[in-house]
Protein: Cyclophilin-like domain-containing protein
Organism: Mesorhizobium ciceri biovar biserrulae
Amino acid sequence: MRLRFIFGDQDFTATLEDNPSAHDLVSILPLDLTIDDYSTNEKIAYLPRKLTEEGSGRFGNEATGDLCYYAPWGNLAMFHGPYRWSRGLIRLGRLDQGPAPLLTRGEHPLRVEMLS
């Protein structure tokens, strides 16, 4: 499964993992959200409802370009810098073209949809 993200002048895709949280995200698409900077290494967007945490747990191989869900806050987290797994973080997939689109700073309307 692949998603398309559009914000500002950025248009990029992500390939999802085969896990319950990623499937739950797909079930609520398409979405119009707001994306904004958080900390120095990620952009976040709050979802309209929380996703399932079924099957979640610690993962390794953290990398820039990861698309994650942070369960305690109910938001997507897209990493453009190094990060470490923390409790409540679930990897949903990875950005296909890497993290460069996330370097556009500021708050923007974000469209998330399935790529057909």
Observations:
- The domain at 2-114 is CATH 2.40.100.20 (Cyclophilin).
